[in-house]
Write a structure and sequence with these properties.
Blueprint (H helix, E strand, L loop, with lengths): L1 H11 L3 H5 L3 E9 L4 E6 L4 E6 L2 E6 L10 E7 L6 E9 L1 H9 L3 H11 L3 E3 L4 E4 L14
Parallel strand pairs: 1-8
Antiparallel strand pairs: 1-4, 2-3, 2-5, 5-6, 6-7
Helix pairs in contact: 3-4
Length: 144
């Protein structure tokens, strides 16, 4: 009986997302046309990743604060095409939302998972954007 109580109590103190989640995520950055250059900056303006599409990058999902999901900005550019700035945000993972529900893990929802940051996933994965060609003509400026 004592062992059953300990197991049940320890289950209630865990967070499903903390157990099965990761603090970072591998993301494919792609574009049409391919070979576009990209830069991903965090909310502080620091470069988190850069390269040429298509490419996988690893992004942190958590900024260290209570319920602190990271937000990024992706900038894509290619000669002859208009550049684009795209927000990349995190959302709550299914492990956090439904896993804690299954195990009645109120401590997981409010105490464990929000401090581990493993409760987040990126809203878009893979990330793919179609760049628009620059307008051509005597009255238009070139994009790049």
């Amino acid at each position: 009986m004592k062992l059953a109580f300990i197991l049940l109590f320890s289950l209630l103190l865990t967070g499903c997302a903390t157990i099965v989640g990761r603090s970072d995520e591998r993301v494919l950055i792609d574009s049409i046309p391919s070979r576009a250059t990209f830069t991903i900056t965090d909310k502080y303006g620091q470069i988190a990743a850069s390269g040429t599409t298509p490419q996988y990058v690893v992004l942190k999902k958590y900024d260290g604060g209570y319920f602190g999901g990271f937000r990024y900005t992706l900038t894509l550019s290619h000669p002859g095409y208009s550049s684009v700035n795209v927000p990349l945000a995190t959302r709550l993972s299914n492990w956090y939302t439904f896993g804690n529900l299954v195990f009645l893990g109120l401590p997981g929802w409010l105490g464990v998972d929000p401090f581990s940051g493993k409760m987040y996933t990126l809203k878009q994965n893979p990330v793919q954007y179609r760049l628009r060609p620059c307008p051509r003509g005597p009255y238009f400026y070139t994009c790049i």
